[in-house]
Amino acid sequence: AGAEAMKRAVQLDVASRFQESLVCYQEGIDLLLQVVKATTDEVKKRHYRQKISEYTFTFLSDGKYHKQVRIEENATGFSYEKVFREYLTEIVSEVWVEDPYIRQVHQASRYLLYNFLRFCEMLVKGPCKVKKIHLLTSYDQGSGRSQQITALEEIKQSLSNYGVTLNIDFSSSIHDREIRFNNGWMIKIGRGLDYFKKPQGHFSIGYCDFDLRPCHETTVDVFHTKHTKKM
After folding, report:
1. CATH label of the domain that carries residue 49
2. pLDDT at residue 145 in the model
3. What's the whole-number mean pLDDT along residues 46-61?
4. pTM of this structure
5. Taking the CB of residue 219, how many other CB atoms lie within 10 A of it?
């Protein structure tokens, strides 16, 4: 089934039906990955992995793909796992996060430090093998700065217990929000990591499970760095 999906993807690519071919490439690679996990024969595993590498190269080589997902107001089902997981392949070991608003734990409508922590938890769980996370953000204003630094240092120390290094840098001019993985994927979200609405209460559905948390309206754009001029 994986091979058939790949043949279909190539046919659609040749026909310039790029979005449809993207879906088929993704489906085929996913199917082959399932075969690799289920196979105990090491020779067959190497063969399937080689095929996955070849198909992945074909999939990413032409610079034609741009995936966009629009999250509607009050939509649910868009946890960080749902948005990012398909791009966190096993080869991902380094992540860059650029977001000017990773701060203000007690701000009325935002919990961005907690959101960043939740994002880091997702990375630690895998299936990727992240060893380094680079955060570029801006300083909190006024009295919140010391709290921001203390919280980030606590996250940094906690990550080190899992063998992950967090590098933190601050910029007063940062505006863009983007997340990059060292397998080449770049994800831009209009609201950055802050696209979840404030929960109705500490014991309301969606407080813990972000798949059940209503979202603000925003757009998610996914690129591969081979397809972009900026990296």
Report:
1. 1.20.58.80
2. 86
3. 66
4. 0.71
5. 13
